[in-house]
Structure to design on (374 residues):
């Protein structure tokens, strides 16, 4: 009996440790719905720790996220093979198999604890709209048309200031505007003081960019290393705006619709023609998709304004993403849609387009004034 009890002790210890590690999940479920508590944890715990972690990771010349992905995949494969071998040696002992699986679940639970308290909690804190006083509510088609026209016209004008190859395709140096990302938020921080002016340069995804394209992602903010990561395989014309979008996440903007708006606005306000054009082009795409849904005839009328270099970038972007349409992108979208809804974003993945409401709210008066002056 004594030997049997000793054999049971490791399993009991794992169960006790598992229960302890489950407490942060329970605590999160209790605290996160309370807005003042979520704000406190976010402002005085989550974001300061991520700021320090991000500063350390910024010293690395590569994406630590990609290294973590590879290490996690190798570890998981090794662990599962090891589990099968040990179980077989123990003549199919369910006890050995159970202990191994419980240990793996314990590791995953610890990872989940980190995710909850260093990223998911941000979804429960004050949003950009709450801090800025913007509403992002429904918009009138007339306003949508005017803002779309404003964006397309300005994008077509700025497209002339971008470096291009002999065939008119985007030829700006990626490293050049990545370096400029350190200060790209300086102007916007005057307008929205709660957004830090300085930024950490995003990491280029050397190993997983193509995979990200198959999954439909142009960038990733990775909370476990507090890094903003950029898909460098995607069309270059929209990478500067993607940088601004991922930096918005770095600055605590968790909602995708808000990060889209903030990213576009930061790019336009940056004072840099490359960033401004990319922001205007991204905004034109979002606004055009919304206008086409609301009034196809109005969209076809404005599509005639997409000419010259802007038309080249527009077509290049469409051609690039068309090759990834299929089951992988569809499944990835459904999974991410479920994730966004689980974090309280009711629109799910459609919230990538809901930034249109914020864009129209912000630019409507300017757009109408522009039309009146014509």
């Amino acid at each position: 009996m004594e030997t049997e009890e000793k054999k049971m002790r490791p399993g009991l210890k794992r169960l006790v440790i598992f229960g302890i590690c489950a407490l942060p999940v329970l605590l999160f479920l209790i605290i996160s719905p309370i807005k003042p508590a979520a704000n406190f944890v976010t402002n005085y715990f989550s974001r300061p720790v991520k700021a320090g972690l991000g500063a350390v990771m910024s010293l690395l010349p590569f994406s630590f996220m990609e290294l973590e992905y590879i290490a996690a995949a190798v570890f998981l494969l090794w662990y599962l093979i090891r589990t099968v071998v040990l179980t077989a040696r123990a003549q199919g002992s369910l006890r050995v198999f159970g202990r191994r699986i419980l240990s793996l679940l314990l590791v995953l639970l610890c990872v989940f604890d980190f995710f909850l308290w260093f990223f998911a909690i941000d979804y429960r804190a004050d949003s950009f709209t709450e801090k800025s006083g913007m509403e992002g509510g429904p918009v009138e088609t007339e306003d949508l048309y005017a803002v779309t026209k404003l964006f397309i016209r300005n994008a077509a004008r700025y497209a002339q200031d971008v470096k291009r190859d002999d065939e008119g395709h985007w030829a700006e140096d990626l490293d050049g505007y990545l370096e400029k990302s350190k200060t790209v938020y300086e102007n916007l921080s005057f307008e929205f003081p709660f957004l830090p002016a300085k930024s950490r340069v995003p990491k280029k995804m050397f190993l997983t960019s193509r995979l990200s394209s198959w999954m439909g992602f142009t960038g990733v903010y990775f909370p476990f290393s507090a890094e903003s990561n950029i898909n460098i395989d995607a069309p270059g014309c929209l990478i500067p705006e993607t940088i601004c979008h991922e930096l918005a996440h770095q600055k605590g903007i968790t909602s995708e619709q808000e990060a889209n708006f903030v990213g576009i606005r930061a790019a336009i306000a940056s004072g840099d023609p490359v960033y401004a054009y990319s922001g205007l082009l991204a905004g034109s795409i979002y606004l055009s998709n919304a206008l086409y849904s609301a009034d196809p005839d109005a969209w076809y009328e404005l599509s005639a304004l997409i000419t010259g270099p802007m038309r080249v970038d527009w077509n290049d972007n469409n051609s690039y993403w068309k090759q990834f349409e299929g089951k992988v992108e569809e499944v990835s979208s459904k999974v991410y849609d479920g994730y966004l809804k689980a974090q309280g974003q009711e629109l799910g993945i459609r919230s990538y387009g809901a930034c249109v409401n914020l864009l129209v709210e912000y630019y409507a008066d300017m757009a109408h004034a522009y039309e009146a002056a014509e």
User: Anything to note?
Assistant: The CA atoms of residues 73 and 79 lie 10 Å apart. The chain has 16 helices and three strands. The beta strands are 203-204, 219-222, 227-230.
